[in-house]
């Protein structure tokens, strides 16, 4: 069995804690590798090594740092197939979906090539008599990212790309469920010219996370995962004086107005609800048709589309719509929530609990599931299911539909399908959610905008990628300068306003 490693100081390093986690093939249910779980001492040693190298990296011309990003993009494109296959093998995604995972991370790295411009400060000459004032953005030092299983390529790149381009050293603690791709990314960064020690990949569990939170050298932490863990990391990290951004769970609603194109809406819901087996923080998990006539028309179109979905392993070809869930525990949880929906009175229109695939009976598969007449008090409505389950909540009016999304504790993404510009504009202006789609089911912003949810989906003042990421990974220093030749008088003892 393969034994994975950490990536420390530019090379693969075996774990020394003696603790390991199993890495499964989700399609077969078999253990295919084991990954070391770092101790606090291992994590602290990686941080200390990064701290020793970081000042030299921060002093490197930002254009030269950008060239490392440029070469990294070339290498990502070169190894796209290799990365996608490794990602699919451990996560279970289809190959096209795995390539999309890599591609959306690559696009953030492309944005980071513009670091020289994004890191420029400000200058005011003659702010006072013979006085100039200017500001500069400087790296924080050593920063860390704690990333989830569902995007093992994209989210590590969302975190490490801006951090490294700003001149920081970066400690990556990826998910122990699918750790191979983050290690491959570290290899490619080294090949692209990143100095040893500037990117450290430390595999681990809660012990490693707590070590990151408590290590006094680490200045900032970025996290993506569940809301309870996001709240824990945000609270403990901030109490230790760190800059922290945490992105948690989601329950994304899609409102379907009576004037919407029903076929377009149904197609969008199937892709947004069941793609990647629903293991996306931006998945649409709640459909909110306005009016019973709209709801009936939508369900009528959804059922045949859902029944035609092809579920299988990534090795079955590119026409597979989605694969297994990441672990057996995830499969059990999703099936349990489906059963709770039935027990609490929702109409189970399509039941995916008994899905079995010949030759893959031990895989972590759940068939596509559709509920109708779901209500606010049901667990399948309140909780993030993170599986191939779509719930339909019937609203009598636009205002009621709006209230479902606005009253929910999560505020990551939402969408509306309509042909009416006034309704769309009102929705965009009033909704208390971070990312909005208008006739777009999964409104993930492009790399040069910023990604982040509201309410219990996001904690912290600055979002991921885009200009916010460069603000998060730097601090501003402001200098007021007057040279001796400009000093004409003696010392002053009162604070004097600028003339």
From TrEMBL:
InterPro entries: Ald_DH/histidinol_DH, Ald_DH_C, Ald_DH_CS_CYS, Ald_DH_N, Aldehyde_DH_dom, MeMal-semiAld_DH. Residues 13-479 form the Aldehyde dehydrogenase domain. Keywords: NAD, Oxidoreductase. Pfam families: Aldedh (PF00171). SUPFAM superfamilies: ALDH-like (SSF53720). Its EC number is 1.2.1.27. It comes from the Bacteria. CDD domains: ALDH_F6_MMSDH. The keyword Protein transport does not apply. PANTHER family: MALONATE-SEMIALDEHYDE DEHYDROGENASE. NCBIfam families: MMSDH. This is methylmalonate-semialdehyde dehydrogenase (CoA acylating). The lineage of its organism: Bacteria, Pseudomonadati, Pseudomonadota, Alphaproteobacteria, Rhodobacterales.
